[in-house]
Amino acid sequence: MNRIAKHTADFYKKVLFTNRCRLCGAVISPVDTICEDCENARRPSGTLCPKCGLTKDVCKCKNSGHICEYKEFAAPFYFEGSIAMGLVRFKNSGYKELCSEYSKEIANCVKERFKDAEFDCVTYVPMRKMREFRRGYNQAKLLAQGVADELGLPLKDLLIKVHHTRTQRGSSAKERRVNLHGAFDLAPNKEVDDKCILIIDDVKTTGSTLNECAFTLRAFNAKTVYAASVAVVDEKKKEIAK
Prior knowledge:
Helices cover about 35% and strands about 15% of the residues. It has about 240 residues and is of the alpha/beta class. α4 packs across α6. The chain is globular, with a radius of gyration of 18 Å.
């Protein structure tokens, strides 16, 4: 198909079928790809804490009293507004098509923030099999596959969830850590000795989930673990992601 025919086909596809924002899923003009809200979405910038991914004025890492098991964390967006709406749609309402743009955003953020890291593979936060079956997919795994493809790295199913945990929504940082303690294990027949691993989730709230996953990987002798997600909750905004 020549270029003119392709452009014509793309135009009529957008006219005949509903066009949605690639980041939040909202209906937009046939000629646009991202809505105005997502175009102007707030991104973490400036001097950021490598552990929580937030600016120094809201970072509480020094006074948190707990050890961070991953080396660094990064996210391209804050969990708020249209980005938060898109992630809720992606996670709970089957908007899997949003994964492609999210994965590109994470990959670009990883390239910018973790320039010196030499990753061996990408992995993700696992779900209980029954919960994944009911939902139909694990959003973190979809994101991790996209990020792995963008970075030219293998995706490895390294972790399993070994016991049920109650919902994290509304829990304090301490409650989340207690709830997740011992929740993950290394998957059967997997080996992470001396590996540099990038672990992916959809949203980072307090970091307890990513921290527990990183703890498990390091317990099995992973050399270094980095973490990334689509968005990070700004504690100053008091928004709850999970």
